[in-house]
Every structure is written in structure tokens, then in C-alpha cells.
Amino acid sequence: MLGQFAGVSVFFFVGLILLLGMLGYVVATGARPDRRVRSAGLTFLGPYLAEQRRIATRVGLPFRVWVGMRVAIVVGLFLVGLHSQIVLLMIGGMLGGYFGFPWIFHQRAAVRQEELNRAVLATAREMVKRMDTGRAFDVVARDVAANPRAEVEYVLAPLLSEQRIEMSLLQVAARAQSALAEMTFVCMVLGRGRDQSQLQEVIRDTIVPTQSKAVEMEDMDLAAKQERRAVVYVMLGIAAVFVYVLQAIPGFAQIYGTLMGQLWLLGCAAMFGGSVYFMDLLAPKVQWTRWDLDLVRRQFVEGEQARGF
What we know:
Elements: H1 2-28, H2 33-39, H3 46-59, H4 63-84, H5 87-131, H6 137-146, H7 153-156, H8 165-176, H9 179-191, H10 196-248, H11 250-256, H12 259-282, H13 293-306
Helix pairs in contact: 1-4, 2-3, 4-5, 5-6, 5-10, 8-9, 8-13, 9-10, 10-11
């Protein structure tokens, strides 16, 4: 059994070193990893790093910090498994650290998105209020972006550029990474084809009431998710105590170091993972339709060209 453990340990340790080497290179090369990996011949990492950058933005962490935290948690759990001398705990620790760590931060991302949606709603109301004084939509949009709420400062930044306001609104929608925010700004783009008074009606009578109801639904959904996560955290605490007992008592470590013992651990892990999965699967969810922003942008450009702009 020790020979099997040593062989598997070496295999996973070498793989871990390669993974850490690639991620360490990414962290060390700065804020544009997608370009660095292309220049280094690691093009297969491009989509993965782009997704990690999006996740880091959603949870409100710098990209380097997010990657560093992920590497640290995977290494830490790998070392816990290595110390236990149980192969399954070593592998499970790495997989748990890789897949479980981002799941823990989903709650933080959901709270930040809720704050963003509320700020977008407040921004839409402020725009209507300023347009009621007779100011043009373009001027109002740039004024709001110049003095934004903290939650939407990054999102509204494209409105300060000199490009067409419609293109800026589409960039704002893309930056928000929120279905509700997309709906708000795309509707503003579509409403720009009408006169000022009709655009005001679209924002005041359609966008604001719809967003208000949607934010209320999101609040209820977030509260339900928090309750489910509390249950999962209790289960994780029990599992952590179980792992500690396996390491602290030599007799248990010997039992679960055997093939049958590891099959039993695998069954326990499967039951835990299955419980979490089905708990999330059976829970009611609020799902919103997402806009194809690239398609909207292309259709807008084609329409402008057809009209001779």
C-alpha cells in the first residue's frame, strides 16, 4: 500500500508542479495574461484565463489575487491529503480545492450583482429625473457616468467616451455581466430610435417598473440561496471533523488506507456531492433571458449604414 501511495503521490505531485508553474507564470507576467500565454505558446490557457478574469471581476478581486488564492487552497488541501497518507484524500483535496473554492465565492458574487442591479435601477431613475428638465439623453447619460454610484463606476465608464452613445451603452451592458443590467441598457439603445419624450416613457414606464419587480425577485432568490448554503456549510464542517479524526487516530488512517476503506470514503464523498447537487437542482431558480450583445451591435451598425450614417 505504501508503494502504491508513493507512486500516486509522485504522479500527482509532478502534475501539481506543472500546474503551479503555468499559473505562477501567469501571475508574474502582469495584467494581460491572455496576450502573454499566446506569446509563450500556451494558447490553450487563453479561454480558461479569460473565464478566471471574469470570475475575479464578479467577486471583486484583482486577477492576481484570485489566481494566487486558488493556487494556495489547492496546494494546502493537497498537503493535507499528503499528510494523511490516504491517496483518495489527497486527490479529493485537490479536486475539492479546485472546484469547491469558486463555489464558496458564488455568494459574494451574487451579493455584488444584487448591489449592481440596485445601482443600475437608481441610475435609470436619476436619468429620467434629469431628462424631465428638458436635457438631452446623451448629456444626461454622460453626466450620470461622470458622477456615478460606487457600484457602477466601472460599468458606466464607457459613457464618458466620444463614441456614439448607443455603442457606449452596449459596452456598459457587456461590462455589467448582469441580465437585468443588460435589459436596461439594451432597451435604452432600442429606445434611442424614438424622440426624447418617447424614450423618457420607455425608461419611466417600462424599464424602471420592470427592473423594480425583478430586483425584488432577485432579493428573494438570494435569501433562499443563503439558507441552502448555510446547510451546506454545516455539512462541510462535519466532513472537516471527519477528516481530522482520520488523521489524528492512527487506527482509522490504517483502515481507510486500504482499498475497501478508500471505496467507503469515495462513497461518502459521492453522497455529499450528490446531496449538494440535488439540493441546488431541486430549488426554484430565477432565470433571466440574456441578450446577444454582439448581434445587437451588428444590427445597429447595419441599420446606421442603411440610413447613410
